Amino acid sequence: MDNSEKLTLDNQFVQMARRAAIIAKTSDPWIRWHAYLTRWTEDACLTIQGLMQNMPLPAAALDVATGTGTPVLDLAKAWPQCRYEACDIAAESIEIARLLAQEEKLPHISFKVCAAEALDYPDDSFGLLTCFFSLMYIKYTSKAIDQFLRVLKPGGHMIITTWTGDNQLFRLVKDTFIMEDHKYPDGQDPFMFSDSRSLKALFKNKPVRNLLVTERKTVLNWEGNEQELWAFFKDSNPVINTLLSALSPDECQEREQHIYSLLSGFKTGGNILFEANMLVCSVQKNSLPL
């Protein structure tokens, strides 16, 4: 091994150590979530790649609310000739995304910290904008859609993915705890865009055409054990902690042991796999009038 190869390897170890340190100390459950998932957005990326076969390859694309960058990394590998930008409101997530892009040797991705409702990019900058499974967590969705359209070029495409309520894991937990309401304490609803009607309503009176919403089944892959998956689910779903707090310690332990038993039924090759349905919304910004 020559000195340049050794230096490259040393840098990779430093990056991996830095990423591990961020994950270990973070208070953000979504960063820990991405640390365990390998196929969370894989099917959605493949769907987008299929859609892009029928449209001109953009010179520049933007991924909004990118989290730790998993989806945009996959797209950047598929289209290395396209320049990618990615943004998220969480600085820790963006730092991990940058480290991952360096490890994957993807220099054509740039990352920025900014909110979806206030995108820090010029007008008419991108031929493609993507937003993976994040729209439901954006506080002002109509304002965000206006921003998405502002930075899209005339004729540019937007592709948004959301979850439906048909999710094996969520169904399992809901049945175990007899949940009647899945909204978070602050009123946030993780399934607020779980049907085509609610997604299409976002684009009413917007300058768009070719609006299409389709449903697809996907498989989610958790690389960890039942206790780790349940710990995350509790961490990221405040409703669960509210329900648990109403139980006695013995009842709480009994319910959680039941959850572990059910989750073990979804194990395949050491990983936990379960089905979930997603919606894929594709729409095109109107071209400039002649």
Q: If helices are DSSP runs of H or I spanning 4 or more residues, what is the number of helices?
A: 11
Residue-averaged pLDDT: 82
- Give the termini distance in whole angstroms: 60 Å
Helix content: 40-55%
Q: Rough shape? A: globular
Instruction: Give the helix/strand class.
Output: alpha/beta
Q: Care to count the β-strands? A: 8
The major β-sheet equals: 8 strands, mixed
Query: pLDDT below 50 for ≥5 consecutive residues: which ranges?
Result: 5-10
Order of helices and strands: HHHEHEHEEHEHHEHHHEE
The amount of beta strand, in percent, is 15-25%
What integer value in Å does the Rg equal? 20 Å
Please give a structural write-up:
The protein has 290 residues and is α/β, with parallel strands linked by helices. Helix content is 43%, strand content 24%. It is built from 11 helices and 8 strands. The protein has helices at residues 3-25, 29-36, 42-52, 70-78, 91-103, 141-151, 168-177, 196-201, 226-236, 238-245, 249-264; strands at residues 60-64, 83-88, 109-113, 126-132, 152-167, 208-222, 267-268, 271-285. Strands 1, 2, 3, 4, 5, 6, 7 and 8 form an 8-stranded mixed β-sheet that branches. Strand 4 (126-132), helix 6 (141-151) and strand 5 form a beta-alpha-beta unit. The longest helix has 23 residues, at 3-25. The protein is globular. Residues 5-10 have low confidence and may be disordered.
Q: What keywords describe this structure?
A:
alpha/beta; 290 residues; 11 helices
Task: Briefly characterize the structure.
With 290 residues, the chain is of the alpha/beta class. The protein is built from eleven helices and eight strands.
